[in-house]
Design goal:
Blueprint lengths: L10 H16 L3 E2 L20 E4 L12 E7 L1 H4 L20 E8 L14 E4 L25 E8 L2 E5 L19 H40 L2 H4 L25
Parallel strand pairs: 1-7
Antiparallel strand pairs: 2-5, 3-4, 3-6, 6-7
Keywords: Membrane, Signal, Transmembrane, Transmembrane helix
Protein name: UPK3L protein
Organism: Bucorvus abyssinicus
């Protein structure tokens, strides 16, 4: 036809692509306006050298009642390129060979809504030790390998299809074990002063014990030796017995 325009050569290939995009949008990933956070500081022990405690994502996945809910743990460098649909790495390969792994698989029943008053609803990440080297458990909730930082998010899967996810958390920094050589200089001086004071007190206590022992020995020797002259048995003094002669008045004739 003289007035018809030529069809674009890529028109036929774009139609299936648009249909695929529409299908993906219809079943797209739900982005939840929720950011995982550490538990309340009132609980204490929120972070250790290998664990941290999160608040449970209560009332966040109500639209996905049949989904499995996972926790994704990643180093910050792996967040941008993390693929929800790809097979995640194993805990045993984290972080050297895998920048992220999934763990703490559960269902919506574990996160009931609403939260009961006074109920403690937390998750401790890194609390399992029995599966650290078990390759058959790639989703092991094992101790984290270093101080981090780490970032986490919750991901809901129906089968292998991701259906909902939360935002990534802020970087979570764990505690660092202090080595003896890393103690401050003031602490070293304080320790040296305590050692010197302890040594002096020990020496003084030993001198006091020696003095008491010497006094005890001196007292015992004085009691056994020199005391015999003071408390010696008195000599026996014999006193002759005299009979009293009665003087009788003699008669005058005998005189």
């Amino acid at each position: 036809r003289p007035h018809s325009r030529p069809r674009h050569p890529h028109a036929r290939t774009m139609v299936p692509l648009l249909l695929l995009l529409l299908a993906t949008a219809a079943h797209g990933l739900v982005q939840l306006n929720y950011k995982p956070t550490l538990a309340s500081p009132d609980l204490g022990g929120l972070t250790t050298t290998s664990t941290f405690v999160l608040e449970q994502p209560r009332c966040q996945f109500e639209g996905q009642p049949n989904a499995d809910i996972w926790l994704v743990v990643a180093v910050p460098e792996a967040v941008r390129d993390f693929n929800n649909s790809a097979v995640p790495g194993a805990f045993q390969d984290f972080p050297d060979k895998a920048g992220a792994y999934v763990t703490l698989n559960t269902t919506l029943l574990s996160y009931p809504c609403p939260k009961a008053p006074g109920e403690i609803t937390v998750l401790r990440v890194g609390s399992e030790t029995s599966c650290v080297d078990d390759k058959s458990r790639p989703t092991c909730n094992g101790p984290l390998p270093g101080p981090g930082p780490y970032r986490v998010k919750f991901l809901a899967l129906e089968g292998s299809e991701p259906v909902a996810e939360t935002m990534w958390s802020d970087p979570i920094q764990l505690k660092t074990a202090r080595q003896p050589s890393s103690n401050p200089v003031t602490g070293s001086r304080h320790s040296a002063g305590m050692i010197a004071l302890t040594s002096i007190l020990t020496i003084l206590f030993a001198i006091l014990l020696a003095g008491l022992a010497a006094m005890l020995v001196f007292w015992r020797s004085d009691a056994c030796g020199g005391g015999s002259s003071t408390f010696s048995k008195p000599e026996v003094v014999s006193v002759r017995r005299y009979n009293t002669h009665h003087v009788y008045d003699q008669p005058a004739a005998r005189l």
